[in-house]
Amino acid sequence: MKKWILLLAVGMSAPALFAQTSAPADPPPAAPGPSLELASQAAKAAIDACTAKGFKVGVSVVDSAGVLKVLLAQDGTSARGVQSSTNKAVTSLTFKDATSRLGERAKSDAAFAQSVSANPALNIRAGGVLLKVKDQIVGAVGVGGARGSENDEACAIVGIGAIQERLNAQFATR
Hints:
The chain contains six helices and four strands.
């Protein structure tokens, strides 16, 4: 019985001894990406472009680590269109190319097509476009919900165009 009490006392004090031996690490720095303000403006410009064409869409903007910065969905947008916007942005970032080009690649590369189709979080229909400053990828914009994914991509390009100069300036100061 005395051995159990001694083992219990030692076992309970050991975590306290080790807990104080290391200082908490600093959080990692934020990944490069558009500011929240610029991400919001890109998403709004993309929605406005699609609205002018009669489409109700969702728009997602991710930073270079794939962190969702902004997700906007126009009233009446389908759930599938909203999810598609995020999947397209992440897919574009993952493969470092526009999803329209990835879709073309899948037509001639069966192994690539199979690997993409095996992951429901990836979408290679047009509508995912990289955000770049010079040659540096700083995020991606994805649009989903328009009839004809080429319309999704056109709206994403309008959104990027609306912020590109200010995005360049944001990274010029770093």
